[in-house]
Amino acid sequence: MADGPVKTALTELLGQIRDGKEIRTYLDRFGAAGGTSFAIFKLGGAVLRDDLETVAAGLALLNTVGLTPIVVHGAGPQLDEAIAAAGVDAGKKDGLRVSTPEVMDVVSTIAMRTTIALSSAIGQQGGHTAAVPPAAIRARIVDEEKYGRVGDPLAVDLETISAITDSGSIPLISNIGVDEAGRLVNINADAVARALALAFEPLKIVFVTGTGGLLDNEGDLITSINLNAELEQMIKDGTVHSGMQLKLEEIGKLLSELPPSTSVSITSPDGIVRELFTHGGQGTLVRL
Ligand code: X2W
Q: Is 76 in the pocket of ligand 1 (CB under 6 A)?
């Protein structure tokens, strides 16, 4: 294998596994789960802006050993910038981007461009990907008057996505779906990840963020959180707020709908492979 980020990631991973038993256990489990839809990764737009090569290296490594996780990506900061530059910003309401037709034009262009950048970065490291068309994510308009063309996922096209994983490629899914009338709609990327998780029931769902997990007030990583027992207090004392609060509430809903064996975690761009193959993972494990 040529020197490069994939080799570095592999060497680092192997260095952490003493006898190979742990990695074999996980490969067996992933194989038993059908081998295809064993894991879903959600990549935030900020991670793709700041750590594209690292994320691509981890995903390419997984694909090189025959795995095809489902990847959902957002593009929040890229959209903020492009929409401001186009002079069409309509603001956000309840954390959702108000998506007028003018905003929607920018959203679909940037989402597509972000998918292409990710695909190309993974391809450069030897991994295979295929972009999933927006029509594979069917959504209902939430409230057109209030939010414009913002959608809530209704159903995902399992066949299209499974055909990609069956062919050995990583499916790349953006925050764009279609409504009943076939119009493109803007969906919060965490909500897309949740819809895919409900449809595929993977063993692991991993949210990749720049912070690498939940941090305490000193900036140290919290390795696990029990939402029922701890979240309320953490919101009260200010450990959890704004975007992370929304994400944890979304994860809480997700956990309550999935089989208890599903693991949901938040990790860093360089933690993708370790999160899958080591028992402790490296980010924050989220439980109910
Ligand atoms: C989001 C979709 C992008 C996203 C938006 O327009 O920003 C809505 O708000 P991150 O980077 O994962 O946050 N959609 C409806 O979720 O990106």
A: yes
